[in-house]
Amino acid sequence: MLLRGERLGGISGDVLEFISSREADRQIFEADLLVDRAHLVMLKERGLITAEEFSEIVAGLDGIEMARLGEGEDVHEAIEAELIARVGAVGGRMHTGRSRNDEVATCIRIALRGELLGLMAEVNDLAEALVERAAENDDSIIPGFTHLQHAQPTTLAHHLLAHADALMRDFERLLDSYQRVNRSPLGAAAFASTGFDIDRARTAELLAFDGLVENSMDAVSTRDFLLEALSSSAILMVNASRLAEELILWSTSEFGYVELDDLFTSTSSIMPQKKNPDTAELVRGKTGTVFGSLVAALAINKALPMSYNRDLQEATPNLWRGISTTRAAVRILTGAVSSAKFRTERLEAASGTGFSTATEIADSLVRKTKIPFRTAHQIVGALAAKGETPTIDDLDGAAERIAKFKPSDRGFGREELAAALDPRRNVAARSRTGGPAPAETRRMAADRKRRIEENDRLVEEMRGRVDSALAALREMR
Ligand code: ARG
């Protein structure tokens, strides 16, 4: 951009800094060189530059390093200037039939694609860690909560698998967004495409894209792919923060259900006894940062007229911040979950407190005496007011008052009550699809493990396809 700064004295420096994207462009430096190479290969194949020009320009690109780039408002300008400094005027042929508008959109998609592949693998790792811990704990009885009040006994496996399933949906969302990220805008030029006889499908293929963002106006002006990646990340962070919150809560002395490995905690500078779950707290806190990135990017993109507007540049740093924060949080949680010590005895001891077996008493009353569930609910509700473990006399008394019968006369006696009060038997009874009974969580854990392995293979395969195409491109001389 030409600065008419002379007249305005010192302000030209401020303007340059204001419009510069150089800091965030670090993320797309490598991608930009790849885009340059793909474009050059295509220009050569279409006879728009000669083989000699191609070789000279590519040789010039070979030695360009980010740290040694000179000035320029963005990385595209700086690379082109450096190229021309190295190979002379022939370097100026590189920008034939393209614009920084399609160039930058292509670069962001390439760099984001790599980030998404990394994030998907990391989300898989976290889900896997949860499933592994679940498999070790299919028999660990724990209190289950609703409203953060003791509700019904469940198992640690059931609880951890719930988190794993949420993360597996996050994986699917990321995978889905990947399919729209990995499309090539290259060749759209400024927005109106170009009169040069270029081949967009060829550059897309060289860069391992799965297709085009076809309409050249759409191609340069949309950042919806980035919004999608950020919203998938924000939703993922909602799930991550829920897990983090429980690690925090469960490691308080009030709960005492889990102990995080020292690596994931820190102590207080003043209170030597403290072991604070800082990493989990920061996952919770950084969730806000990711939301902020998404909301900033949404707001920047809102109501932009066609086609390219410089506002778009302002969205990109939010993308990198949002994705890198998400990736770091996921990795930390994987370590914290894998190394956490669950206090299974304490969990089991807590599992029957707060009359959390009440539902099972009502359920077994229904099964044994055939009274309607609502009546059973009323009877057991009356017992709950007593505040301590009910006896069969309590039950008979309440049932007589409410429904004019004695459960012990209808086959629900001392033994049936004791069974219903046992958290372990509560859990064993809940063996239907998706429930906490050990056989069912074992089935779910095995199923999830298999799907996670499949997802891992899928990511590896996608990464392999991208890596080999890019390696081949780097070899083209
Ligand atoms: N740095 C710019 C961005 O991130 C690159 C495109 C610049 N295009 C332009 N017409 N000034 O969007």
Q: Your description of this structure?
A:
With 477 residues, the protein is mainly alpha-helical. Among the domains are: 13-96, Orthogonal Bundle (Fumarase C, Chain B, domain 1), CATH 1.10.275; 107-132 and 162-183 and 220-348, Up-down Bundle (Fumarase C, Chain A, domain 2), CATH 1.20.200.10; 358-424. The protein has 19 helices and four strands. The protein has helices at residues 11-19, 22-25, 29-45, 51-62, 75-87, 100-136, 156-181, 200-206, 216-221, 224-250, 278-301, 311-339, 344-350, 358-369, 373-384, 392-403, 414-421, 423-429, 438-475; strands spanning 141-146, 149-155, 258-259, 341-342. The strands form two sheets. It has a two-stranded antiparallel sheet with strand order 1-2. Helix 3 (29-45) packs antiparallel against helix 4. The longest helix is centred in the last third of the chain and has 38 residues, at 438-475. The mean pLDDT is 95. The chain binds arginine.
Strand order of the largest sheet: 1-2
| Structural classification | mainly alpha
Low-confidence stretches: none
**What's the CATH H-level superfamily name of the domain at 107-132 and 162-183 and 220-348?**
Fumarase/aspartase (Central domain)
**How many separate helices?**
19
CATH class of the domain at 107-132 and 162-183 and 220-348: Mainly Alpha
The mean pLDDT is: 95
Hey, roughly how much beta strand do the residues contain? under 5%
User: How many beta strands in the DSSP annotation?
Assistant: 4
Report helical residue fraction. 55-70%
Biggest sheet architecture: 2 strands, antiparallel
Q: What's the gyration radius in Å? A: 31 Å
- The arrangement of helices and strands along the chain is HHHHHHEEHHHHEHHEHHHHHHH
* CATH architecture level-2 label of the domain at 107-132 and 162-183 and 220-348: Up-down Bundle
CATH topology category name of the domain at 107-132 and 162-183 and 220-348: Fumarase C, Chain A, domain 2
Q: Which small-molecule ligands are present, each listed once?
A: arginine
